[in-house]
Amino acid sequence: MVPKTTIANAGNALVPAYLVLVAKGYSVRCSLEEEDGGEIWHAENDALKLSAEDPVALLGLVTMAEARGADWQASDEQIDSFLRTFGLDSPQD
User: What would the DSSP string read from start to end of 39-93?
Assistant: First the structure.
C-alpha cells in the first residue's frame, strides 16, 4: 500500500500555496492591517478578488469559487445540515 501524502496548514505550506495561486493566474499581495498589524493576503484575477489570513486560506477560497461558482454561498438547508453533522446545532448553556 502506498502511504498517503500528508499536508498540514503550517509554515511549510505557505510558499507552495502561493506558487499554485500564481500558476492559476492570480496576482497575490500582502498588506498589514492598521488595527493590529496582522497580515491580510489578497489574490485577484479577472473574475475574482479574494482576501484571507494566508496563502493557504486564499487557495481554499479559490477552490471553493471554482467548485461553486458565483453562487458560492451555502443555503439555509446546507448550513443546518453542516451544523447537525458536526454537533454545532445544540443550544448553548
Answer: EEEEEE-SS-EEEESSHHHHHHHHHHHHHHGGG-SPPHHHHHHHHHHTT--SPP-
